[in-house]
Model the fold of this input.
Amino acid sequence: MGLQELASRADELVRRAQEEAGACSSPAALDEVRVRYLGRKGELTSLLRELGGLEAAARPAAGETLNRAKRAIEERLLAAAGRLGETPRSGGGPDRDLTLPGRRPPLGRLHPLTRTTEEMLDVFRHLGFAVHEGPEVELERYNFDALNTPAWHPTRDEHDSFFLAPGVVLRTHTSPVQVRVMERQRPPVRMVAPGRCFRRDNPDASHAIGFHQIEGLYVDEGVTFADLRGTLEAFARRLLGEGTRTRFRPSYFPFTEPSAEMDVGCLVCMGTGCRVCKRTGWLEVMGCGMVHPAVLSGVGYDPERFTGFAFGIGIDRICMLRHGIDDIRLLMDNDLRFLEQF
Amino acid sequence: MKAPYRWLREMTGTALSAAELAERLTHSGTVIGGIEDAGLRYRAMRVGRVIEVRPLGERLRLARVAAGAETLEVATAASNVRAGLTAALALPGAELPGGRTIETRSMAGVLSQGMLLSREELGLGPDAEADRVLELADRWEPGTALATALELDDLVLEAEINPNRGDCLSLLGLAREVAAIGAGEVKLPPWEVREAGEPAAGEARIDLRAPGGCPFYSARILDGLSPGPAPLWLAARLLLAGVRPRNLLVDVTNYVLFELGQPLHAFDLDRLASRELVVRFGRGETLRTLDGIERVLGPEVLAICDGERPAAVAGIMGGEETAVQPGTRRVLLESAWFDPVTIRRAAKSLALATDASHRFERAVDPGGVLRASARAARLLAELGGARPRPGLLTAGEPPAPLDPIRLRPARARSLLGAEPATGLDDAAMEKALGRLGLAVTKAGASWTVAPPSHRRDLAIEEDVIEEIARLHGYERFPSWSRIPRTVSPHEGERGRLARRLRPLLAGAGFYEASTVTLIEERRAADWLEAAGAPGQRPLPVMNPISEAYATLRPALLPGLLGSLALNLNRRRPDPRLFELGVVFAPTADAPLPDERYHLACGVSGAWTGPSWDAAAREADIWDLRGLLEAWAGWLALPAFAFEPAALPLFAGAGGWRLLLGGEPVGLAGEIGPAWRERFGLRARALCAELDLERCLADAGAGPRPYRGLPRFPAVERDIALVVDASVAHAALESLIREEGGELVEAVRLFDVYAGDPLPPGRKSLAYGLTLRAADRTLSEEDAHAVRRRIAERAARELGAGLRE
Done:
């Protein structure tokens, strides 16, 4: 008998053993199949004995072929035994307890800040905004001066900065990305930029070492305050629900004129007044405004031809409001008992 | 800025309630963050009338006091308590401004059921004599709420003033805003002065040597001031505005500061070392300021000197030496216009912020400097009998109002998106500008708008457009979203990669963490040492908030391992965390540090299970390595390799440097016992960190090319090779692949064995081979031949034997 023939006979045995094992309805019947093929006088066992009749050179390959067949039959028997409830550790006998829990693979979760950020970005992507990134350590020039906030401007009081070197700060907002993008491209510019920012606040329930913002900018011919309202209202409704109420109030930022603050109806009390909204029924969620002409001319855009709007949203606050988180430090603590909840 | 409602009403005649004003002002840009009912501070305080007094002991007396329906007995030591006196009575439960709570107490054998209060105890400043209780007018009925009698039962509006609106930091400024929204008219308080005596000019001289820092300085001389406390109404208003009353002179200067927004400073004329006031920058002299602190006046600090020595820090705080005292009778009253940047620099360098510096930094009204001085003089004359001496000492000129601004109504409408229905016609604009006190000159389609002296924030057309818009009401403008021109849908590289990676990592059981960017300097240095970068220095911030947050992180793991330790300490078993974030390294000549986007992960405890039929299996470095191999495959990183690394971090455990195209891009392994302790980890932990920036450059970004599906079946063959223990798997695997050539589709190590019956120093590595030819079905002979060639070459080159 040649090697080829041996192999095909082995394959045939495996096929038959599988069929018979599959047809067994009791462990006893299965045992019979085992004996028929793998027992001392079993069919595969006798095939193995024929190895001696082969020439020496062919023996190792033939041996391997048969061993493989033996393992295959054992596997099929084991599988059939499992089906019959015969495996030693699978819940026992024909009356297995089917209420046992499954073997669950570990599965992690994304950070609530990530989820909030991604949902916001998705809304802006659908509105045609590109997503940009900028450095977390910034030149003071980009963080302040190019945003119409010269040295000794009182607004800098609200932007108490960490310095790495004279003229180099940890960015206090994502707004410098506006300038970096405008320096690189001509209008139309329609972008958002998420990222981490830093102000020298002592950590407490509402201040962390580092917080997160999404910056937005749209500059083109004929962009108006009505576009600002329409876009940001659409954003608020997409993110927070179609019924979300919004309002715009005058405000001040050195790099926008006119400037505004967008409030949304309180997500906690739905506008009836509660502790979170200080009983006003409204929550301040973002600063915005029409881009200041000095910012536009600073990057070489003609403010008579191009206008635009810009906005900045605090991600942490929205995340906390959405989930009812009352201490911002939880967001950077990485306690799994917290992270598991999202 | 706290604005007592009645004071604001007095200055505007507004008919709106405090709540209505708050709403309207907030919508026009002056945010009213809250309204405090100040009367609530004086709960359980009443007007009381003393019925009779009888002695209790040496000094104590017991007064029977009527307080409406009830009559109480109160012990007192005050000298002026007498029958018929109308006084301030605190009932048990009342809380005094200092925080003290009044209770019923037993004194000299009787029960004292409250307390008769002095001016000082009410926070209204010291009385003329110390041991007196406050005397109230007899018109107050006993039992009346004390807050009512003292005019402290007011609502206080908390105005949040934007940094560009320094002009709003006063009642007058807020009154102008009330007028601007059409809810009242500004009523200036009287400020005409009746002067008397010798001209002021003879008393002092002003030498203005720093006109850049102080464009305009004025001083008035007053004498004949009688000492004493301010009247109750004035003290009450100050208290409501958030300032503690002290004495008439100080209180009047503070009152005018809040009323008109102009900070004033009063020198005691008789305590000035010289009658020549010199305004100049500091020369490193020291000055003890009113708060009792010795301060060094450097060249950025503007000083008012009496002769040679500094007597006050200009625009910020006076000096102790020349300060007015309760007995001061002759005063030099300063009213000046200081340059905002000068004051801000000085305040920053002295780390000293006051009500005065806050206003000067935001520019006070140059047109109001002399008015404030006159107003204070008038009040001191009226209330303290002072005689303002004729004339003013002045130096310099107040700055002129800002230049007129061109306004094109059509541009305003187009920028704001106004439609006819918005109602913003020319007349509406003119009306809004008029209410703000902006003089309009029309010349066709282009107007000229002149800002008044107090509006130093109006410089360009857009500033004026904002004024029009905010008074018209932002909510009245239309809202639409036209996105006419397409913008290429750019997406930042990091964000794109992160979006692909995060679900993958979470799918492997890792929770996403977010750690702090600033870490302890020692921890950063430790890390650089542990991770084998001892030459790299940490990047400290110059002005950290505390030692715990002093350095930019050089890697994610120092923070992430901290989070792992925190979870272990809180007994959360088997923590698995990952983080994507920016890390920092110094650069040689660029101004900004190198920012790199990293991935880090850490795991401790079980890798699988436990379940009801299997015990848990603890994670080891092979789990970690396998995971990284799988991720690298998923990212299509072509030449990703593990190089055993003797890093301090892994000493006593084991780990690798991660290589990409031969370049180090990260590390992975088990943290050794020494570093485990230094990171506070109470259990074994595995970690890895990878520079994604490098991986981004190498990752297969474009679409992956399709390979035709195999048309012929594969043949599986096993081969077990016995080699010296020193032979590496990697060497065997590459030998197999090389020798097998195109036929080898996959090589899988399925067993590693050493021990009986193998001789000592030998081990067996068993591989499963998948062999396939692209053009035919492999025969048994083909497969056998490949296996034999591999065995022969392994024997020749690596001394391998076949294990049957």
